[in-house]
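Fig. S4 source data, part A: sequence.
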Amino acid sequence: MKLKILPLCLFPLLLAAQSLSDFEKRITEFTLANGLHFIIFERHEAPVISFHSYVNAGSVDDPSGETGIAHMFEHMAFKGTETIGTKNWPAEKLAMQEVELVYDRYDAERNKGEKADPKALAKVQQELKAAMDKANSYVIPNAYPQIIEENGGVGMNAGTGEDSTNYFYNFPRNRLELWFLLESQRFYDPVFREFYKERDVVREERRMRVESSPQGMLVEGLIAAAFEAHPYHNMPGGWASDIENFRLPEAVAFYKKYYVPANITIGIAGDVDPRECRRLADKYFSILPSGPLPSGPRTVEPPQKGERRIRVESPAQPFMAIAYKRPDQTEKDDPVFDVLNEIYSGERTGLLYKELVRDQKIALAAGSQASFPGGKYPNLFLFFLVPNMGHTVEENEKACYKVIDEVKTKKVDEATLNRIKTKVRASLIHRLDSNSGMAEALTFYYVAYGDWRKMFTGIDDIAKVTADDVQRVAKQYLVPDTRTVTWIVPPEAK
């Protein structure tokens, strides 16, 4: 159970809802004929509403050779529709079609490889730039986000992860119908305008977050080494060569396959009338054509049969990541990993902090993460270490293994276990206060576990974890044969 994924909270909520049965009275669920599922949570304390659209598709669904295309479409979902963001849609549509025709000719010549004519390539490149400039001249920049902001919308953003893509923002109560209009239209009628201009933005994001970031390079090296076959092997942003060669039809194909209504769940939390939401959902979202649910990746990661080690050269601060293979979030031991994570890195009470940072002073920071990079499929239990001045990654690595093994050889005492359970419980209870957090939580738990009630029943799962469970899971999964280690070292002198 992923208690750390979501920014949630429960204290004021529990004053009004002391049990799951009371909470259920404030929830309304319905599914449209096309398969799109809504979860509505009523909270009338303030005239505001949060919206969260959870698309059950992420970077694991990127086709081969198109890594990052899920992220690319996320950018396209803010570009408007046939009526939002254009000065002249019929003319813009023709200009966009001309861009693709010229791009086809460019690719045809470039695909000749060594036989390609440099002069012909240069000529068609000029034609391509001119065609793009013409298409972009019809665009009203940022028209879709501007409508939201002008109507009091705040917190508008989106994110593409390994397992999902999420769209969210908040509106005043009296803009409820406007949200239904805007959100339904961007999924029903997205226009992929400024596609190649936005492709450059996506490429720059990769340059900033990975290529110019030592930790970004370390994480990319870690997952590339840990996952030989499964698509967790790829970062959500994609590989540079794939991004640089995205074509608009590829993004359209991804959208048509994965943005079917049955693959989307929408959470709404705040000052709403569920009956009104149902009426507006029928009015605006029923137009989305139904389609078959896409299948997930067929590739299964083969068993790892030995430690893998990756060294990343960088003049930056030394850093180390150590990862062990673990099962997915629906497995029975998932709550045990959450407890184990708190034992190792529960802020200032975690073993890693106490041993490496406070007592030995060989690390500036040391911690763990129960699930990485996603949770839908078998993933990683992650440790990270930042050496202190005058101490090495090797010294920290050795100390980290000693702490890991301590849990295998010595059972955690009941007092510590109860404190951790109370803390994990409180962290969930302390998360469900905001409307935005609630809308996000409802969609995540519904898709990940098949029922939003897992928010509550998961607390019971945590409470059932024993010291024997913790020791058993540590012995079974935190073993050298499934370990991948990456670390940063200074560049070697040439």
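Fig. S4 source data, part B ends here. The longest strand covers residues 363-372.
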